[in-house]
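Researcher: Predict the fold of UDP-N-acetylmuramoyl-tripeptide--D-alanyl-D-alanine ligase.
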Amino acid sequence: MNIENLHSLFLECNSVCTDTRKIKKDDMFFALKGDNFNGNMYAEKALKKGAKYAVIDDNQYKTSAQAIVVNNVLETLQELAIFHRKHLNVPIIALTGSNGKTTTKELINAVLSQKYKTTATVGNLNNHIGVPLTLLSMDLNTEIGIVEMGANHLKEIEFLCHIAKPDYGYITNFGKAHLEGFGSVEGVITGKSEMYDYLMANNKTVFVNGNDTIQVNKTKGANRFVFGNNTFVDTTIEFIDAQPFVACKYNGLIIKSQLIGDYNFGNIAAAIAIGNYFKVADDAIKNAVENYIPTNNRSQIIKKGTNNIILDAYNANPTSMHAALLNFEKQTGPKIAVLGDMFELGNDAKKEHQNITDLATSLNIDKTIFIGENFYQSESDSKKVIQYKSFEDFKNDFDFTQMKNTTLLIKGSRGMALERVLELL
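Model: Structure tokens for UDP-N-acetylmuramoyl-tripeptide--D-alanyl-D-alanine ligase follow.
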């Protein structure tokens, strides 16, 4: 079956699904395969649960006319997304970066949805499967699409741009993330800049943080919209304060967010600038930013008894960990940091974990608890440092009942699942 015919069938369906546990009536099920599963085996179950069609790539699982056999399910999903994107012809804003992608995407969506019908990436579905799913979630009512793109190796952003064909793009920053795949920070810059390469080659628009020298230099000659507090920007957004939450000034308005950390200023500024570009009213921009509350373990502020918790446990890398600690030091009163291993650092893992250990020791933080094999191997003779090889060791040893009127920072890579600390409080 060619893509045009498959797209006609797709338009009969409510949505696309790849998990039979989440099937809804009249979905189109794509039988993806992984290292430990074969989606073809679940095609019949998907149809019985209400799916209108099931796309498979193994003939032996074709049990009805509703099962559509293709050469490769994943490639077909991607090709369908490309076709659908052309069918809709909706403006697409793509964003990537080492840190802050999802928060920035949520802020941009909050701002633009004040004026437009937007469709944005759900959660962090930002890879070779998530990007197609995001595109396929858009319909004729969508006025602007917002697509988050993640990458852990070279040519990945290039491939995702080939699928989404963005009209606009923004890179939050370049940091020490996924060094195992990119090889170095220079590799990160090259890999993330594949978005710039696509946009500039196709004469599309780039949003640029004028306070970031790398972004400014990388986009010379581009059709760009620059924001920040430098003199050459298209729109000026001035940082005011980050205690306790980030506040900024824009067109005479004071905007007070519910986000902690001065590192979130760039994320907020990007959303304001993009709102400005798309002519969202100033008061609507202010309303959107001020009412955005972070979720999903990203810079969440949680009150437990007399303690305040900064839960930033969705993910971590050396750049974001460094920024989080510098911000945490500014908190008043007793402070305890609970930090988990940072993953995907390859040969740099030992050095980067030692750097964070040294930084935490040097800061005005009462105690830092390190959890994970990498942090356990870091050297420190400070009495302010406690090291645990595993979460279970930490859980069985540390007594949280002694804590009163304390501020906690909880941060680590996703695989550490440090949100479990909340259960111990």
